[in-house]
């Protein structure tokens, strides 16, 4: 049972807590659990709606380790065991994980980028390899490949349950003593003499010296109230499901196609989920169209059919749109905010937060309790990289590969 602070309408409460986590997506829930596991049990998570109701609930759920930078590759690799053994490592029933394998496909223009990425990933220890055309046809039967393309294969990757993972983290955090307040949007982070002093909702004040923002597409709204300007943009992304009927391909791996700019994964035994991470549009997180457009469906379906020809005969099943929180280099900000003692930011995951959440929660809890993250070196994710010109470099024109 997820904790909900109860009070009579019209009353006002003040509580003293060790820390406040703002945002009840998979990031906020992971952070809350990891704080509680380190002994900060008198913490509260504030969620404006229900757990996973923001970006988490509209994630594609892909779990892969193919990244252009060591920091993201390492975060994904160190998160991976938690998706496989959540029950043993965290203590709650393991959310669903479906192993499909993951294939990254690059044409001549992206060849060097893919080879570089795989080299980085192998240094990290990730189970991945360059495979040849014959091997690609074996792991992805029914796909149409070009002879000049190059392929990376991750046999262990697949997809998981973002909302279920957020719920499991939250439940275990609650069992450790943390509190969760749903339908309780944070309205203000109060700072006195450059130090966090409290966090306010409509009917509660939480006196605290630590506020952690895992606020996703609402991050800029919070930061602007503190006169903090960071390049965070809420963008709308679309995905949809195609039902593969009749003699259409029975199963296939998950993947990212840099040539045709699609990412995809199987859903069940007879459907395919597909998206295009380059077709993002700036959006108002409080008011956006939650359904994909007809133009998007036609464009992305055609792109997918260039790789999986038989998919053209499938049937549209359903689709949805969600929100990314995007940065110029598609890497998140996981940092304490200089000049605001006790204020921490964990946002800007640009469409790949879910698969990093276990490791990020650990790193953020280390940053808060020890002053530095040691589980993974997160210095490349500092907030000041944009003003200093030290942004992370990605290998592909295809910004988000699910």
Query: In the CATH classification, which architecture of the largest domain applies?
Result: 3-Layer(bba) Sandwich
Q: How would the global form be characterised? A: globular
Query: How would a crystallographer describe the biggest sheet?
Result: 9 strands, mixed
CATH topology of the largest domain: FAD/NAD(P)-binding domain
Compute the number of helices.
10
Sheet/helix structural class: alpha/beta
Percent of sequence in beta strands: 25-35%
Helix-residue proportion: 25-40%
CATH level 1 class label of the largest domain: Alpha Beta
What is the secondary structure topology, with strand pairs?
Layout: E1 13-16, E2 19-22, H1 26-37, E3 43-46, E4 62-63, H2 70-84, H3 86-89, E5 97-99, E6 102-106, H4 111-124, E7 129-131, H5 133-139, E8 150-154, E9 158-160, H6 162-175, E10 179-181, E11 188-192, E12 195-200, E13 204-207, E14 211-213, H7 219-225, E15 233-243, E16 254-257, E17 262-267, E18 271-275, E19 281-282, H8 294-307, E20 315-326, E21 333-336, E22 343-347, H9 357-370, H10 385-388
Parallel strand pairs: 1-13, 2-3, 2-14, 3-10, 6-16, 14-22
Antiparallel strand pairs: 4-9, 5-9, 6-8, 7-8, 11-12, 12-13, 15-18, 15-19, 15-20, 16-17, 17-18, 21-22
Helix pairs in contact: 1-6, 1-9, 2-9
């Amino acid at each position: 049972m997820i904790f909900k602070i109860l009070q009579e309408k019209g009353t006002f409460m003040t509580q003293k807590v060790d820390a406040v986590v703002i945002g009840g997506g998979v990031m906020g829930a992971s952070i809350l659990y990891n704080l509680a596991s380190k002994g900060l049990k008198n913490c509260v998570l504030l969620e404006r709606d229900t757990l996973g109701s923001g970006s988490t609930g509209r994630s594609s759920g892909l779990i892969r380790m193919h990244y252009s930078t060591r920091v993201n590759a390492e975060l994904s690799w160190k998160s991976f065991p938690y998706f496989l053994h959540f029950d043993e490592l965290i203590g709650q029933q393991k959310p669903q994980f479906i192993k499909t394998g993951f294939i990254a496909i690059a044409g001549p223009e992206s060849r060097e980028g893919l080879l570089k990425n795989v080299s980085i990933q192998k240094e990290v220890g990730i189970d991945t390899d360059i495979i040849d055309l014959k091997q690609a046809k074996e792991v992805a039967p029914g796909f149409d490949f070009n002879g000049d393309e190059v392929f990376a294969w991750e046999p262990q990757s697949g997809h998981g349950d973002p909302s279920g993972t957020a719920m499991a983290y939250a439940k275990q955090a609650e069992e450790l003593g943390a509190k969760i307040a749903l339908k309780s949007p944070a309205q203000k982070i109060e700072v006195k003499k450059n130090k966090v002093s409290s966090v306010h909702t409509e009917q509660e004040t939480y006196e605290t010296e630590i506020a952690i923002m895992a606020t996703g597409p609402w991050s800029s709204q919070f930061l602007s109230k503190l006169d903090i300007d960071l390049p965070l943009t809420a963008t709308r992304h679309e995905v949809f499901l195609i039902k593969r009927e009749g003699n259409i391909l029975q199963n296939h791996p998950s993947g990212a196609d840099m040539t045709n700019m699609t990412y995809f994964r199987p859903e069940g035994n007879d459907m395919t989920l597909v998206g295009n991470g380059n077709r993002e549009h700036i959006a108002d997180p409080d008011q956006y169209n939650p359904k994909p457009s007809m133009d998007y469906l036609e464009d992305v379906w055609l792109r997918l059919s260039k790789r999986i020809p038989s998919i053209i005969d499938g049937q549209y099943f359903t689709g949805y749109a969600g929100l990314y929180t995007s940065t110029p280099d598609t890497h998140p900000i996981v940092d304490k905010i200089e000049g605001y003692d006790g204020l921490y930011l964990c946002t800007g995951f640009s469409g790949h937060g879910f698969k990093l959440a276990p490791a990020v929660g650990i790193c953020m809890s280390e940053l808060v309790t020890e002053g530095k993250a040691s589980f993974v070196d997160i210095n490349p994710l500092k907030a000041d990289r944009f003003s200093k010109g030290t942004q992370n470099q990605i290998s592909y024109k295809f910004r988000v590969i699910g």
